Amino acid sequence: MDTQYFERMESEVRTYSRSFPIVFDRACGAHLWTTDGTQYIDFLAGAGTLNYGHNNPVLKKALMDYIERDGIVHGLDFWTHGKQDFYQTLEELILKPRGLDYKIQLPGPTGTNAVEAAIRLARRITGRSNILTFTNGFHGVTMGALATTGNAKFRDALGVPAIGAQFMPYDGYLGEGVDTLDYVEKALDDKSSGLDRPAAAIVELVQGEGGINAASIEWIKRLAEICKQRDILLIVDDIQAGCGRTGKFFSFEHAGIKPDMVTNSKSLSGYGLPFAMLMMRRDLDKWTPGQYNGTFRGHTLAMVTAAEALRHYWKDDTFEQDVQRKGEVIRERFEMLAGLLSDVGHPAKERGRGMMRGIDVGSGELADEITHGAFQRGLIIETSGQAGEVVKCLCPLTITDDELEQGLTILERSIRSLIE
Amino acid sequence: MDTQYFERMESEVRTYSRSFPIVFDRACGAHLWTTDGTQYIDFLAGAGTLNYGHNNPVLKKALMDYIERDGIVHGLDFWTHGKQDFYQTLEELILKPRGLDYKIQLPGPTGTNAVEAAIRLARRITGRSNILTFTNGFHGVTMGALATTGNAKFRDALGVPAIGAQFMPYDGYLGEGVDTLDYVEKALDDKSSGLDRPAAAIVELVQGEGGINAASIEWIKRLAEICKQRDILLIVDDIQAGCGRTGKFFSFEHAGIKPDMVTNSKSLSGYGLPFAMLMMRRDLDKWTPGQYNGTFRGHTLAMVTAAEALRHYWKDDTFEQDVQRKGEVIRERFEMLAGLLSDVGHPAKERGRGMMRGIDVGSGELADEITHGAFQRGLIIETSGQAGEVVKCLCPLTITDDELEQGLTILERSIRSLIE
Amino acid sequence: MDTQYFERMESEVRTYSRSFPIVFDRACGAHLWTTDGTQYIDFLAGAGTLNYGHNNPVLKKALMDYIERDGIVHGLDFWTHGKQDFYQTLEELILKPRGLDYKIQLPGPTGTNAVEAAIRLARRITGRSNILTFTNGFHGVTMGALATTGNAKFRDALGVPAIGAQFMPYDGYLGEGVDTLDYVEKALDDKSSGLDRPAAAIVELVQGEGGINAASIEWIKRLAEICKQRDILLIVDDIQAGCGRTGKFFSFEHAGIKPDMVTNSKSLSGYGLPFAMLMMRRDLDKWTPGQYNGTFRGHTLAMVTAAEALRHYWKDDTFEQDVQRKGEVIRERFEMLAGLLSDVGHPAKERGRGMMRGIDVGSGELADEITHGAFQRGLIIETSGQAGEVVKCLCPLTITDDELEQGLTILERSIRSLIE
Amino acid sequence: MDTQYFERMESEVRTYSRSFPIVFDRACGAHLWTTDGTQYIDFLAGAGTLNYGHNNPVLKKALMDYIERDGIVHGLDFWTHGKQDFYQTLEELILKPRGLDYKIQLPGPTGTNAVEAAIRLARRITGRSNILTFTNGFHGVTMGALATTGNAKFRDALGVPAIGAQFMPYDGYLGEGVDTLDYVEKALDDKSSGLDRPAAAIVELVQGEGGINAASIEWIKRLAEICKQRDILLIVDDIQAGCGRTGKFFSFEHAGIKPDMVTNSKSLSGYGLPFAMLMMRRDLDKWTPGQYNGTFRGHTLAMVTAAEALRHYWKDDTFEQDVQRKGEVIRERFEMLAGLLSDVGHPAKERGRGMMRGIDVGSGELADEITHGAFQRGLIIETSGQAGEVVKCLCPLTITDDELEQGLTILERSIRSLIE
């Protein structure tokens, strides 16, 4: 495998190829193969983009049929048959059963586009400019979205201040026994707190990049209530935590809230195809024609696979139940592994919800050793958290019990080899 | 065709479906078909995204083969076989023959991502924050790119000031006999002009959304020189004008310049798939790992079709010659049509380069009447320009002479019906 | 007194004249007289600008002598005899005895100018743009300073986002038992907290406009330590709390710290004349010539009275001792008054340091009734705090014991009349 | 004279003391004296702040009487007798005779405060954020005002982008034969010019710091008309050009326009005391109480001398006539001097209006040599313009014919000594 070629041609900005410096070729389900045929189990799965696995055969068939019959591929924002099928399937199988009356905007095929659109719409509706966001939040890196993203490495690279958002501490940030919403509420009602009255709050209910931090159900409910009382729109960024990752289609279903807007992307197409969506409460659709655009907002192939994924996995609660069950398997194993580490002087903690799980091992160095050891043994797994201190599992939701066990066993071996 | 369904479910932000309120289903080459089988000729072609036509059979085959054999679809920024093939083909067929020594960044699959990345890199390299941009320029609508985009409708929707860029008049903006670069140069060298010393200038050499304004070769050369003398990086945004649209692969080849950075997208994948690329002079690759990211920067399907498109159309200059020939056909017809309009009191002008052509008919209302009439007659064609006053032709470069003639004839009939 | 004339000619932006809608004419020491000769005791004293009382006779003599002999009045930033006298007196009587090796910048005659200069210098030195500021802080309303000021009424009026600063909770803001610096420290060291690495922290050690909040000595020391460890400059804004108000010349003397920069204004001239100063650690003077300017930075009359005030009041610790003694008198009385209110169901609290004292009465309405009642009885006294809930005393430091007793008695009567 | 002391204690930001490195002590009329008694003629006059000369005896008497009788010195924004006298005198002698129905805001004692207030008010009224400003404009250096100021040295020192304003070319900037307002008008009406619809345009009708550039009367009238037609507020910044400097009290009187807002400062107090004022059309006073504040907005001494100056110099047109006459004297001499320089290969040009005059000598180096030579011969005179290329005369309007002749003679000698 000629990796020097990549090093010569590809910008230094590259990241994952530094952790996994090999050349991949094929993939199916929870497996990846390199050009020379070596197989890996995939616990990264497109950083949450492949909830239904790589090249899922059900979706693959729909995709190939559509291409074969010359269905519209690039549709700008034309009305197309493919789009209609996606809208209808979404409405019937997802929105209606959950009592959600949303309108849909396809703002371009990347999550950051959905966030940029949501923020602008919130400002337009309220006439306010500030967006309330949370420590360790990640909402994209184009400049508008980046204002709500906490990561210094992106913020520093911007070259100008990221304007239009202010940070408040996420659930748990101030330690045990402090409800961070006390601070949020006080600052919102204090006329000289420096917290400008927000148009909206944007929040991930489980923070992925931030370290698999799951806000408590009570905290989420209270946040929704605080926003409602003050006419602040609540935007749930479900880009990583949505599409079943937490054990429900939307991460907010666990708390029984109905956000004013929801952003989706990543696993939305189901096949790893670029796709993003903003949903907004019907009465909030205050856009005028063309106020947000983008060349690829009509990427119809993604709609085709997205509709098929909904039909296949979300027509009843079987899939959801299965995800919850496997989530428990991972949780238990991670608790055990955290215990192993803690016992030998590396205080560690399991965290997450559903199949969005991690082990906070306390340091980025240790986490890197663990994932590196796993890679040596045939498992692709990555870290997250502000210092990369959380080993995270984002394996396909469709992973078989055997594959899951294999992956967890590799991870366990990697950990044991470091501490024994 | 149930368009009411769309009106109920889809945000008011929708645009093209207002001009063409029908539901499309299939497409091939320069043709589109609605769900009920009506055929249209496509002179919009994904707003410059379908230079090789809809669902080009050569690319289709490569795409289906790749999907069939479970090639990696979603590759984050992993090294993949598909990516390597794209890089190598690009290097061999495009960069080397043109003497360009660029490194490549795939910053996410939308043009606006490439612009955001270019801007940040320019700031990082120079330590300056300002980006010089031009009247009527369009470089995307995410917030960082939007600072360089002139359109009021997007800028107003932002809700906060778009920071980090300043506008100067594009070639021709101050009328005949005024070289706008005199002003640019004076303001750059004047210590109290208010024009902050720029990190970079970003420019389209033919402005698409801005009204098919083609900068003169002299102006382009002088701009490059002005930038070089003052250590200002030159970013050519070739998102719409690239991939052969102007009669050369890159729009800047006509002027013989070598920009410091180049952004590409739209027709890059060749099949309408989301894809974008930033190329930078080798020594300018000052990124540190992971300073720019995005979930879909490894959309490998797009790389597969992109490589195939390069192999098929760019191995020699046959295609390029053909584009230039057809560009002349359009130019002559548009001159004639402009003459027709001028003769009856609607002063009109042909403009553009290669197969990126328009007729400035002086008012958005008249342009709308013309394109509406064309649509009634079976031709999809749109307007651009600050008031929508330019009827623009962005038909597939692969259009046959017959199809082109049919389309032009429809357009002519639409115009004649209005003035006769 | 013709107040209708003022209402017709003066902008609605006026404030104090709404609380005290009469026309003043003369003033001396702690007294003001209206045009018809009515006398008031002044517990507002120019909002902290008249520490030595109105028209202090010692300073008056120096001022009149200087004007009489045609000393330079407007000196741009020329070197003048008056300026030299001020610098030397400041160095000998204030800086040297306190072990402070500062250089001096006179950035214009208003406090907000000193803050704008401090912020820019901090950015220049560090190459970072963010300024860490605190809830309820007030540092001026010109746009640069306003970014660090918490008040919504000014921030909303700006019309664009105030950029370049981020807020953290001031001492006590998160309630008993929470050290807000735990949060500050965590967020500073967390790579995805959203708190951009600051160039400097700016802080009032007793917040005046924010509600007479005195940070604890421990908090101040820890803040200084946190900044030092991370190479963040510490700017103490001593505009209101300086010049002896807290019982020491500088408010930071109580904590034994040496800030990197200090801003002064308000009582600096001693006579109520516009004057402001930025002091910076000698090695931080990284300005290049003329990078900050302003027409009135050489307001020499203010330097003349400033030097005279230093000579008269700060040659030894007699004045300082007297301020501390009178501070205790106010504190005791305010504690008693807070007790009175608390006893009848209006929980109230004394707060402050030295002669910068307030009673937090829990609501702006009650505070207004109290100050209004005091005004009816001949006492000028105002409120502060985010909702105007703190009745504050900023009487001249030179007030006699009798005058102080008279003022406090009026205040007590006003309170008693409301609750009895 | 101990200048080393200043160098040790005073920040490197100092400017004028670098051109004139001596220590001044006294001043009267058009003369300055150093501490050792050396006399200088003053053609700088506080950079336009001393239109009535240093320590004008008429104003001095009023000032000393007021201080003597303990008139209010520091009045916050209380109503005071001194303020009433100023308002009434202004109304009677200045506003009424000129048909101006303005309300008054005293936003703090510096010009930059008046500009910040004007900008915010314009945004508040219109709901737009952009301010249109002009190349080479100078409107102050606090961050809000700085966005409208062209000078790179201040803009670079800000450390963040100056937001909220966009620049357009001032009259003459694009050379002979190009009316820059053609560009302004086109960009305003062009929906993709990148020029955001402005809340207001701010303009100096003679640019002082920018190089004594006097806009033509036609340009001013057309600018006013362009603004009016588009509901853009016109703010005339008369801080340097006002108070008679151009031969009329307001610089806009020459063009017969009535701006929506006017900022004044510099010579407004008449005695060099810090003072600034914003005047706004009565119906534009949309401030709510306290939305703009500042400690020294009630600097009453400045109001006392301001009122006296109006009474003494503006009760009829005698003074105005005298200024126009002396302006001609300067103009003729400057034309002659420009001719001298041009004859020996230094193309030079006289410019300005009234007694705001300059000679553009083509280079900052030459201008410095001229002013340095003048200083050696007893004349204080400075340069302006983007590269300091304009020798400017801002001598007191009250200068006697003899003194003016002496100063001009020194200047002529300095020039002749360089070229002969």
TrEMBL record, chains A, B, C, D:
Its cofactor is pyridoxal 5'-phosphate. It holds the Pfam family Aminotran_3. Keywords: Aminotransferase, Pyridoxal phosphate, Transferase. Its EC number is 2.6.1.76. CDD domains: OAT_like (cd00610). It is an enzyme of class 2 (transferase). GO terms for biological process: ectoine biosynthetic process. Coiled coil: none annotated. SUPFAM superfamilies: PLP-dependent transferases. Pathway: Amine and polyamine biosynthesis; ectoine biosynthesis; L-ectoine from L-aspartate 4-semialdehyde: step 1/3. InterPro entries: Aminotrans_3 (IPR005814), Aminotrans_3_PPA_site (IPR049704), Dat (IPR004637), Ectoine_EctB (IPR012773), PyrdxlP-dep_Trfase (IPR015424), PyrdxlP-dep_Trfase_major (IPR015421), PyrdxlP-dep_Trfase_small (IPR015422). Belongs to the class-III pyridoxal-phosphate-dependent aminotransferase family. This is Diaminobutyrate--2-oxoglutarate transaminase.
